[in-house]
Amino acid sequence: MALARLHTNIKHWNERVDLAAAFRWTERLNFHEAVANHFSFAVNDNGTQFLMNPNQMHFARIKASDMLLLDANDPNVLKKPGAPDMTAWGLHGAIHRHCPHARCAMHVHSIHATVLASLADSTLPPIDQNTAIFFNRYVIDEHYGGLAFEGEGERCATLFSDPKKKVMIMGNHGILIIGDSVADTFNRLYYFERAAETYIRALQTGQPLRVLSDEIAEKAASEQEDYDNQAERHLTELKAILDEEGSNYAS
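Structure (tokenized):
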């Protein structure tokens, strides 16, 4: 950690470290896709300035000092040296331009969430505790329009108008998760993929599903939202494991 302390004069260092840890664990869980997919975190009050991973760097190598600091209202971002990936800018730039409640945004093509997004009916019924915590807390994008360049990103951003809904099941594409912090968002990403896997595997049995009532599903979702510090402890433990392994994520 001595090396990490040398970098603490870099702006938004703690947030960079949290993002780097999230990238490393996303790769370890095989939620990533080659050198695609992107995470971002807003660092100013209105959310328009944000950190994001560099263009086409593998999640397994990303360090805190690698993060780009971007301005969603800068029309010349893609013309500058070290510019972000065009689709990352299109999607995350739009989110941070139009959705100030989305402090953090994580977009992946994780297997089970993407299978869910590929079904004609992409709803996630509450068949267990993990699926129940997302009850009435996601939106389904039914109008995939190609790679997430600026027009597609702007369209997607409009779907996060309800602050209660922090998951976008991107039909024919993948998943987009937003949250209040890196820990909050990564925790939601982790549990959504687990929930999607449970549902997909349940469908594969061909047996009738044991679906919870709306009342119990809402109760479970509300209880999860009130479960103090669970997301923060999750990320703290993951960083502790990385530290014990001698990872350079926090450099």
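The first strand starts at residue 38 and ends at 42. Residues 128 and 212 are 8 Å apart (CA to CA).
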